[in-house]
Task: structure prediction
Amino acid sequence: MFLDDRDKQRFLDTLAGIKDKFNCKFYAYCLMNNHVHLVVDTNGSDISQIMKSLNVSYVMYFNRKYERCGHLFQDRFRSEVIDNDRYLLEVTRYIHLNPVRAKMVKDAAHYPWSSYSVYIGRDGNPRNLVDTSLVLKYFSDDDAKACRKYMEYVQRGTDGEPAGEQCPAILDFPDAEDETTKEPVNNLQVMSLIEAVANQYNVRASDLISKRTPHAEARNEAIKQVKRSFNFGMRDIGILFGGLSESSVSKILKR
Result:
């Protein structure tokens, strides 16, 4: 996506234009070489229209600059609804740590192409692109203290958590004001919970993680307990339970 720093600068300029055009908010971003992470509040706009406008504008620039034509992005963008405050905080930490986990830098603060420097007060938020107030308010009403505590929170994410391109929902999540760190969630914990639900309904755990299970009631209860206990995102719950769609998971959780 980016062949030099000017490309990344242009992408941020494009984001600023999108923000004004759709009256949306960006809570965090991270530009990697071959993909981008965005945390966006659509503010009532259609996320598909926002991403289409962003993609078209940037691809036109990229194609002109490098004398190429055709598509730049391999697939349609992937999105997931952030449906609670804890998940919001974890997602921002996850994407700010992307360059660290990719071994591009040792400290997230050393990476110039994410919103992390704005969060910790090292960047004046050019173009007023990032809204940090929603996330930082969970740490303190004092701006300086909030920046410091958020920095500590992000740094704790490099200690003892699973590395790699995992969904942030399966990483540990300490309370914002809590200095202790919970143990990371692992697959054994998840499967133990599903097996416990299966035992309650006198069925096999393997039946509950099948998309076409004959035990829908037990499966639905397991989905609700996994959501409550581990705060998985809709997409990852769907994958865990045999490939259910995000909309199907959402309907089950609302029952």
